[in-house]
Hints:
Blueprint: E1 3-7, E2 13-15, E3 29-33, H1 41-48, H2 54-57, E4 83-85, E5 93-98, H3 108-121, E6 126-130, H4 134-146, E7 149-155, H5 161-169, E8 173-177, H6 181-195, E9 198-199, H7 205-211, H8 213-221, E10 229-233, H9 238-252, E11 261-267, H10 272-278, H11 304-313, E12 317-321, H12 323-335, H13 342-356, E13 365-370, H14 381-384, H15 396-406
Parallel strand pairs: 5-13, 6-7, 6-9, 7-8, 10-11, 10-13, 11-12
Antiparallel strand pairs: 1-2, 1-3, 4-5
Bound molecules: ligand F0G.
Ligand F0G binds near residues 106, 233, 236, 237 and 295.
Amino acid sequence: MKQYLKCIRCGRVYPLHDTRFRCDCGGLLEVRYSHFPGPSIVDTWEKRTGSREPLDQSGVWRYREFLIRSSNPVTYPEGRTNLYKLGVDGFENLYVKHEGENPTGSFKDRGMTVGITHAKDLGMKAVACASTGNTSASMAAYAARAGIKAFVFLPSGRIAAGKLAQAVAYGATIFEVMGDFDDAMNMVVKVSKELGIYLLNSLNPVRLEGQKTIVIDTLHQLDWEIPDWIILPGGNLGNTSAFGKALMELKEAGIITKVPRLATIQALGAAPFFRSFVNGFKTFQPVKAETVATAIRIGNPVNFEKAKAGIQFTKGIVEAVTDREILDAKRILDRSGIGCEPASAASLAGVLKLYKMGVIKGYERIVLILTGNLLKDPEIVPKVHDVRSIRVSSRFEDIRGILKEVIP
Ligand code: F0G
């Protein structure tokens, strides 16, 4: 079983242990495998769900036939996230895959378990990333587990409180870059190349392999009844790329025959992918990004080329929603008892918009990906919900009197 890196632009091949992320021609690299198992592998995957082995329990390594090989993965285990049915007027089959249930509260753990494992296998002593918050939290945690030094580059003052707290607590060295995420990203690419630090942004093709399992795991949970749509937020476009690749590989292996359509949803103030999609992907213009959903406040997504391939392969679409639509959708998700951070709510906001436009029908089977946990961004809560508490004395009679009025 051969594994190697291949340029998606010119097809040039590099060994898997090469730490480059771009080909000499400038194209992005992706991981390729010489062979996938046939459809009967799904029975093995099903058996592993009942196993006590950490690698089988991991919702990432359980699907290791579609990942790089390692003799000693760094795993929590992660990826044991639930698929919920969500009741929203007009929709019969709306599901929510809550990636905020991962160990550090976001989908990044799926990529990071593979990325940090590879860093360790390569003998790397230090890892780095630029981040809008979740990548840094996840990388710091996995680096701590693996005993590797972590450096994170964050856009100054634009990180949600929960995420920054995690990076600090897990012991990463933090650089606050006076600029936005795109500036931090440019910086970390140069720094890591020059100083031999292993880069763990989604520019890293090995990390993206782990994120493929969001799709594999979801289809497994649906008993391989393929949905019509998978809807996800888009920022740096790592997930859009990974989802497209997962679907291409599952199809190639004969595990699926039908392919769900991907719909990537961007925040209108940070929507270069959407703008490119609208003009048939003929041009791509980076933008100066601004949105309340800080996780996807990205103006120059590094994975544009791969994400484009993912949308084209699945006959997918790209849409953009306003900050108001994002926060309204977050309110619905929060009040359903599921909850999420603002960027994640872009998926529901997108579905509601596409439904109104008649693109998505209420009878279709739809999976929304919630990328991050509600606790990541506590400061946004008063902007979404009325924060009303009732001040009371500690006298039982006072409280009883108030309760009598308000209990239904
Ligand atoms: N949702 C959340 C909660 C995120 O943290 C991110 C990206 C995205 C969506 C977008 O995913 O980049 O694959 O399109 N966060 C990165 C970070 C950029 O640094 O944590 P994408």
